[in-house]
Amino acid sequence: MTLTASSPTAAVLIIGDEILSGRTADTNLNTIARFLQALGIDLKEARTVGDVPAQIVGALNALRAAHDYVFTTGGIGPTHDDITADCVAEAFGVPLREHPEALAILGRRYGDDFNAARRRMARVPEGGTLIANPVSDAPGFQVENVFVMAGVPKIMTAMLEDVAPRLRTGSVVHSRTLRVVGVGEGAVAATLSDAAQAERRLSFGSYPFGAGSDGEMGANLVVRGRDEALLDEAVARLKAALAEIGVQTVEV
Predict the structure, then answer these.
(1) What is the pLDDT of residue 212?
(2) Are 139 and 131 in contact (CB under 8 A)?
(3) What is the DSSP code (8-state) at residue 5?
(4) pLDDT tens for each residue of 155-165
(5) CATH no. of 9-166
(6) Residues of the chain whose pLDDT is less than 50?
(7) Which CB contacts under 8 angstroms, 24+ apart, belong to 64-68?
(8) End-to-end CA, the chain
(9) Which positions ≥6 away from 202 have C-beta within 8 Å?
(10) Tens digits of per-residue pLDDT, 135-145?
């Protein structure tokens, strides 16, 4: 089933050795996914790379060619290993320069403490436009279809407010969930597969949960699509088909 008809597609590039080492747990992907879903933009791919220029440049070029939008997180701070701006400039083949507006923003924030390290955060690839940072002022930036944002979750989330008006939106994907309890996925797999084959305009998925302290086990059956009436009809048919094989459901 394809959810992308007439809707933009997007990818996320998460940058940082600290993510790959396990030192830092990434939450930005989940935040961006929810943000895009609300705008009707299909998030199709996500990659994580370390602080290796060739990996960042290669991944960025592949993703920006394949999708309408690319969102990067991480690597735009003041330290030597914050190399995302350098890599974006290399990917686009443009110079990396201090942005006058970014210099002014950072100068006002740091005053006499505006040192060389902090000036690094004013560097933007030529032709880039700033993304506002209402939390700590140091801006992100946009170059064509690439949005470069901070890795700190609170800052990244705040930056999305400035990003949203720049995006072409699509029709929102709706979802319905049928919860089955007391049986494993194997008991409902064939019925779910039949439903998916019968209606290819929708997406059907199964997400099991194991026995907890109360011994409960089962699966959440999730149906997704842009046509809400079609979605409701398919869920009703699936519910009835499950009832025929003795599986009761609760719509969540």
Answers:
(1) 56
(2) yes
(3) T
(4) 999 999 999 99
(5) 3.40.980.10
(6) 1-2, 4
(7) 64/91, 64/144, 64/145, 64/146, 66/9, 66/11, 67/9, 67/10, 67/11, 67/145, 68/8, 68/9, 68/10, 68/41, 68/145, 68/168
(8) 23
(9) 1, 196, 223, 224, 225, 230, 231, 234
(10) 999 999 999 99
- Residue 24's identity, in one-letter code, is T
Domain boundaries, the chain: 9-166, 175-251
Cα separations (Å) of 116 from 2, 20, 121, 122? 49, 28, 9, 10
Amino acid at 130: L
CA distances from 77 to 12, 58, 117, 128, 155 (A): 19, 21, 9, 17, 12
- CATH 3.30.70.260 assigned to domain 175-251? The reply is yes
Q: What is the rounded CA–CA span in Å between residue 64 and residue 18?
A: 24
